[in-house]
Every structure is written in structure tokens, then in C-alpha cells.
Amino acid sequence: MGTISNKTISELLKKTWQSTPSAEEDSYVERNLYRLYGIKVSELTTEDIRFLINQGVLLEILIPQAFRILEKDLFAEGDFYAGDLLNAVMEVEELFWTHHPDILTTLLRILRSNMDKIKEYDGPRSVRRNIEKFIDRK
């Protein structure tokens, strides 16, 4: 993982932006993606990882990065609410989990090892519903 963490999103995707997004013409999503493409994986914040996962960017790399955060703080918070990183991970499309059962197994292990914290969680109901959905898997 050392070599990956020292690369930027742009290097990993082998994609560069042709022009700088302008505040007037481009959305927040485009401007933020542009900003994040130049940052090394090792320098991404919790919010950066949450945002990129929500955009479906480099999930095979960023979800394990999210796990490193979630193992320390299951309800790590980006810019929105306690548990928004976990919720972003759990809302990834089902096809991803089908193709990456090892990553799914890791998520299930993290969830099941934090049952006490989950029972005490007082955040958005959508997070609790997603947790229940994942814990109920085989």
C-alpha cells in the first residue's frame, strides 16, 4: 500500500484535467474532484475520502483507506454528521460488494466488532438502517 498512498488520485486514475474548473461554470463536485485529483492518497482527509467514495472514485483503494479510519473511530465524521464516512461506504453499489467479497468481509468484521458502539449510536436513522442491512448479511 506504501506506493499507492504516495500517488495522487490523478496518477492512480491515469487521468488529468484538461482545464481548471471555473467557479461560475462548474459544480462544487467538479471543483472538488479537480482539487482532490492532485492530492496524494496518504494526505486525504476523512471528508475527502467520504466525498470520493460517494463519487465512486477508486473504491478498491479508498474503501480500505476508509477502513483504517473506521477501525479507530466507527462513526468518524466528514463535513456532515457522525458516521457519514461509514454511511458512504455502506451506500456503495451492491455490484462492488459482489466483485470484492474480501472488502465486504472486512466491513462486516468492523461492524460486528463494534456492536456496543452501534447500539449507542444516536445519529441519522439512515446510518442505523444501513448498518442493520450489512450485519444481516450471511
UniProtKB/TrEMBL annotation:
<dbReference type="InterPro" id="IPR040547">
    <property type="entry name" value="CdiI"/>
</dbReference>
<dbReference type="Pfam" id="PF18616">
    <property type="entry name" value="CdiI_3"/>
</dbReference>
<protein>
    <submittedName>
        <fullName>Uncharacterized protein</fullName>
    </submittedName>
</protein>
